Each structure stands twice: as C-alpha cells, then as structure tokens.
Amino acid sequence: MRRLFGSVRARATLAATAVVAVALVAAGAVVLLSLRSNLAGQADTAADGAARNVASQIAQGVPYRELDLDGDHPAQVVDRDGRVLAASEDLEAISVSDVTPVARPDARPDGDEDDAEAGEIGEVTWHGQGRATVDGESVAYRFAQVEVTDRGDRTVRVYAGASLEAQQDAVHTAATVMLVGLPLLLAVVAWVTWTVTRRALRPVEAIRREMAAITASEDLARRVPVPDTHDEVARLARTTNETLAALETSVERQRRFVADASHELRSPIASLRTQLEVAAAHPALLDLDGAVEDTVRLQRLAADLLLLARLDAGERVADARVELAALVRERAAGRSEVSVRAEAVEVAGSRGQLERVLDNLLDNARRHARSAVVVTVRRDGDRRAVVEVADDGDGVPAGDRERVFERFVRLDEARARDDGGAGLGLAIARDVATRHGGTLTVRDAPTGGALFELRLPIA
Asked: Are 193 and 69 in contact (CB under 8 A)?
C-alpha cells in the first residue's frame, strides 16, 4: 500500500479524484437547495392564488357555505375568534410549524382590521410550512394566509395550501441520481487521470530505467531516450544527457590525468632508484647532482599535481589585493633575458597562485626564446588588467594554440628543448586564470615568437 501511494501517478489520481468529489458534492448540495427553494416558491405562488381566490369570493359577498374551495388546494376560513366559517371538503385539520411573515408596505397594526372597507381583500400576511390532514391522510403543504373583509364588515382569515409532494419527489429523485452518478463519475475521473498520468510519466520511467542501467554498467557513454515532445520531460531528458556528457568528460579527464601523472612520475622515480642502487653497490659512482635534479623534478611535479587537485576540487580563491606590476617585477628579478614594462594596476586574488602563473609563463618563454623575453603590464579600460609575455622564439602553430593548455601536452619541438617540464605549467596557468575570473590565450608576438596574454579583472 505504501509503495502504491508512494508513486506520483497514484497521488495525482487520488488528488484529482478528491478535488472532483468535493466539487461535485458542493455542486450537488447547491443544486438540491436551489431546486427545493424554487419548488417551494412555486408552492407559495400556488397557495397565494388559492387563498386570494377564496378571499375574492368572500369580498364579492358569496356566502361562506357556497364558497368554491378548490379540492387540490385545501383551504379554510376562520374569524378573529378562531371559529371555522368554511373549509374544503374532507379537510380534517391544518397544522403549521414554520411561519415566515410577508412584509406589507400597507400593513396595519393588529386591531385595525375593522377599519378596512367592506369587501376589501388584504395582502398575503405570511407563508408557512406544515401538514394538512385530508380524508385521513396527512401531507406536507406550503400555506398562505390572506385577510379579507366581508360585506358585513367582518375581517376573516383565509388559509390555503399547496402540496409539497411534487417538491419532495423531485428532490428525492435528484438526490438519488446524484448518489448513483457520483461514484460512477468519480470512477471515470480516476481512470482517466490514472491513464493520462501513466502515459505522461512513461518517458520519465524510461529515463529512470536507462539511468539505472547506466549506474549498473558504469557505461557513461550511454544516453537516456529523449521523447519527441517539447515539454518538461523532454527538457529533463536533454539536461540529463548533458549531465552524463559532462560527467563522462570529467571521468575521462581524470583517467587521463591519473595515467599521465603515473607516466610522468615513473621516469624520475626510476632514474632516482637506479642512481641509488648504483650508489649502494658502488659508492664512488654516485651521481649526486643527477639525484638532486631528479628529486627536485619529483618535488615540482608533486607540487603541480597538488595544485591541480585543489583547483579541480573548487578551492576558493582568496580576495586579497595584489599589485600586479610589482609582482611581475619581483618574479622577473634574476632573469637577465627578461625585460619588464609595467604600469601600476591592482587585481584581487591569491598572491601565491598568481605568482605561480607568472613563474610558469616566464619559464615557458625562457625555454623557447632565442634571446629576449618582454613582459608588459597595462590596463584595458577600467575593468581589465593585461599581462603580456612575449618571446622571440618560433611561436606556437595556430593549430596547437589550444592544445598547449592541456595537461601533460608538450609539442614535439618544445619537448626537444624542454629542460625537465612535465607539460603542466600552461595548464595550471589557465586554470588559475579562469578561477580568478580571467583568461589566458596565446597568439603571435610582434617579434615573431609566442605572446601569452593574461587578462584579469581589476580590483
């Protein structure tokens, strides 16, 4: 039971059925009350007509014993003392339990009836509901009372009734129809809602099954089916496929990263182990400089991998203010072939990470420059600070200007001139630039080499 009503389809069906049920019950009650009120009004009209007819005869001087009393509308005439002057044939008793006075703009206070002109027909003074016993049978009626002055200046009251049997039968019939039809209509509503909801949720179930299969198989190349519609389900399927594609790219990138890192670590570790094993067997052959060089290479590679891991984990960038021109001069100090042209500009970010970007760009430019590296710091409007690092080397081919920013990528010519880099410097520099809300691109330098352009938001 919990599983059944835990489904969206069951809850939607139950909610729709409940809403329709409440609406139908309310509408049915309104219809029955309206029907009952209308039929009661019709009965009042009929009772008014019967009472006025008798009153009209009295006003015209017809003797009480000769009054024409309609058999379909039981009536009786009484004087002010309550004596019955005339009554319908077979009428045995009238009892009224619910009386509603009728407002009369020309009504006179009790006791002034004798002031009425002879033969004057009064207005209907009240309507009431009760029962009349005719020929031993008690039936519900609506009654009307009319006051009239006869030719003898005597004021009498005429009571006439209209049967409510037709009203009761109509209300009973309508209520029976509603009681029979309401469950049938609710069943139809529930069935239609269940069917429509099942059809609407069928694509969602297909997406769920495919996602379960992807989870079980760990095959991120699979995609969920996209329904041929333009609704929320289709957008959900497309978003799910985009998420799967991004996840597949991320996982593949992580796999390549682990594989490349393992490969890059293997060489210095193997070299260092070989040197240590040789030194252990033949101490005189120890290449101390080579061992230190391999250790430094391992240290740099481990630091690069750690920084990339922090960047991938979304490490929050510090919001300290950094004077970019001073930082560039500081990092260029000691590099004789590097010249700096800089104007003062402040950026917000991590000083340590920005130092790493500048060091990587300067080291890359020194490895590929023939004789000189020029670093320029300038403003680009009021929003951007620009750092340009240009060398006079061979430059970067147009087809490789995005590849150089991929991790562990080293172009063939660069590999021949490399002094031990692992191909992570430019990748780290771009990642840091992106984390700081900036960009890092490469194009041809005026001197013919490569120009790396770093753009950062001004603090």
From this structure: no
Residues of 74-95 as b/e, b for ≥16 C-beta within 10 angstroms? bbbbbeeeeeebbbbeebeebe
Q: What is the rounded distance in angstroms from the CA atom of residue 171 to the CA atom of residue 177?
A: 10
What domain count does the chain have? 3
Whether residue 226 lies inside any domain: the answer is no
**Predicted pLDDT of residue 110:** 43
Least Cα distance to 222 among 235, 209, 234 occurs for 209
Length of the chain, in residues = 459
What residue ranges of the chain have pLDDT lower than 50?
105-118, 413-418, 420
Query: For the purposes of burial, counting CB atoms within 10 Å of the CB of 317, is it exposed (0-12), middle (13-18) or buried (19 or more)?
Result: middle
Spatial separation of the C-alpha atoms in residues 399 and 402, rounded to whole Å = 8
The residues with which 322 forms a beta bridge, in sequence order, are: 347
pLDDT of residue 280: 84
Residue 23 and residue 171 in one domain? yes
Neighbours of 125 (CB within 10 A): 17
Show the domain range for 302.
232-309
Torsion of CA 211, 217, 219, 220, to 10 degrees: 30
Domain co-membership, 352 together with 387? yes
Q: Are residues 241 and 344 in the same domain?
A: no
Host H or E run for residue 95: strand 91-101
Burial class (CB in 10 A: 0-12, 13-18, 19+), 57: buried
* Distance separating alpha carbons of residues 423 and 301, to the nearest angstrom: 10
CB atoms within 10 A of CB 44: 20
- 190 within some domain: yes
- According to DSSP, residue 117 is labeled P
Asked whether residue 321 falls in the same domain as residue 300, the answer is no
355: domain CATH number is 3.30.565.10
Q: How many CA atoms lie within 13 A of 51 on its CB side?
A: 30
Question: Looking at 325-399, which runs of residues are DSSP E strands?
Answer: 338-342, 346-349, 373-380, 384-391
